[in-house]
Amino acid sequence: MRLLEEKIKNDGKILSDQVLKVDSFLNHQIDPQLMLEIGKEFAHIFEAEGITKIVTIESSGIAPSVMAGLQMNVPVIFARKRKSLTLVDELLSATVHSFTKNETNEISISKKYVNEKDRVLIIDDFLANGEAALGLVDIVQQSGAKVVGIGIVIEKSFQPGAQRLKELGLRVESLARIASLSNGEVTYINEMAEELIQ
What pLDDT is attached to residue 110? Predict the structure, then answer.
């Protein structure tokens, strides 16, 4: 997705060869127009899957998920990382370790929102080691619903997350696939492929 790739190059901040900061448009301040385009792209990619629900994780997955849900006309459910006084009964839960924050959280959603009739699209902002996506897959499978795909805004392809998910037979579609953050520069998988062709 060219628009997203340009936004990352122009406004993203590389903190190390492992960490990319995109808080100016994705996971702190949100660019609504970009999120709308991301939602349209996910709706287009997964249009043949008969999706009935979108599941994400708080908080950075919510904006792209809501825009995709708007385009697909389906509800969006987000897994909570913190216990809530109102979210206590009939929970589906999994434990997730965040690579970027180096913390482990128990994530939960209510059983009443996902069931065995659902065809679920999982959406998240980043894919690195795959822990968040695997936790969401676990929760959806606990409900008896089918995971029909995983939509990722930014994939760090040099980390093992995408491979781990694909080895489980899951369809992973990432809008921006980063091959490297070395030397303070973002290099995309498609750019590396173009260089090999030349």
Answer: 92
Query: Strand, coil or helix: what is 194?
Result: helix
- Produce one character per residue of 25-55: b if its CB has 16 or more CB atoms within 10 Å, e if not: bbbeebbeebbbbbbebbbebbeeeebbbbb
- What tens digit of pLDDT does each residue of 75-94 get? 999 999 876 666 666 899 99
pTM above 0.85, yes or no: yes
- 103-111: long-range contacts, CB 8 A cutoff, minimum separation 24: 105/81, 106/81, 107/57, 107/79, 107/80, 107/81, 107/132, 107/135, 107/136, 107/139, 108/79, 108/80, 108/83, 108/139, 109/55, 109/77, 109/78, 109/79, 109/80, 109/139, 111/143
Looking at residue 160, what DSSP letter applies? S
As a whole-number percent, the residues of the chain with pLDDT over 90 amount to 85
The answer to whether the beta carbons of residues 120 and 147 sit under 8 Å apart is yes
